[in-house]
Amino acid sequence: MIIKSERISLKHLLTVEALTDQEVMGLIRRGQEFKQGANWTPQKPQYFATNLFFENSTRTHKSFDVAEKKLGLEVIEFEASTSSVQKGETLYDTVLTMSALGVDVAVIRHGDENYYDELIQSKTIQCSIINGGDGSGQHPTQCLLDLMTIYEEFGYFEGLKVAIVGDITHSRVAKSNMQMLKRLGAQVFFSGPREWYDEEFEVYGHYLPLDELLEQVDVMMMLRVQHERHDGKESFSKEAYHQEYGLTVERAKKLQKHAIIMHPAPVNRDVELADSLVEGLQSRIVQQMSNGVFVRMAILEAVLNGKA
Ligand code: CP
């Protein structure tokens, strides 16, 4: 059942912590409405959006492209490799330029944590910022699409048992999700290599060996091994990681029948989870990618409402 969403207005979307529970639930419900074919009524005849990606992306970048086009926004193309970034232009100056050109909203992915601080403090930059991922910091739009996918499945968060498994230290997805899932009443567990787990996560949930979690969780959220953040140091072979910390076919047989498997993707098949599970019956990975478009439509709408 979908409860009709309230109108939400946001200046920026930088972290999930900054959202109220009502805003989170409103964005999820609005995402569901868009999925069911709802329309958006713009306040102005023309809005401009740009997607500034300084780190690689398929899902986030392209689902924002699709979401913007579905809403009827004009999308200003930007490639860091062919822009004045190559002449030394800073992120601040790129965004200042986009703002001066009349861009209403900039979706940004950047390798620096909290890159957005100087942008939102600027008195000159007028465009709204949506964080598409900041280093190992946060990935709020992925968190919202993950929450939408869980809500679509269960219809509630209170008391759900959610395991977050894998390279937690380097995962911005995990950090956004652990905060918001705990706040919404889910019981969070962690598993994976101890060296990729930090005691600071204990405020959100407890660490358990993977084999102790299989039979009790409702959601098994596997994380990508973030090779690009390991400074070239690899502690596991792919096979060894899969056998020790991965969701193997044998482990998946122990999951409850109603349990779902999630992964933000891209998936390292046969590493975090077995190849045959990626598109299997209990997987919601494809649904997560599709939901990304609809929840991002809801986020863009909220930010453009904020400008009105
Ligand atoms: N899940 C996710 O952020 O994927 P991309 O890196 O492809 O955007």
From TrEMBL:
GO MF, any single term: amino acid binding
Limits of the Aspartate/ornithine carbamoyltransferase carbamoyl-P binding domain: 11-152
EC number of the protein: 2.1.3.2
Signal peptide location: none
Official protein name in the record: Aspartate carbamoyltransferase
Record bears the keyword Transferase: yes
Database matches in InterPro entries: Asp/Orn_carbamoyltranf_P-bd, Asp/Orn_carbamoylTrfase, Asp/Orn_carbamoylTrfase_sf, Asp_carbamoyltransf, Asp_carbamoyltransf_Asp/Orn-bd
Enzyme class name: transferase
Gene responsible for this protein: pyrB
Job description of the protein: Catalyzes the condensation of carbamoyl phosphate and aspartate to form carbamoyl aspartate and inorganic phosphate, the committed step in the de novo pyrimidine nucleotide biosynthesis pathway.
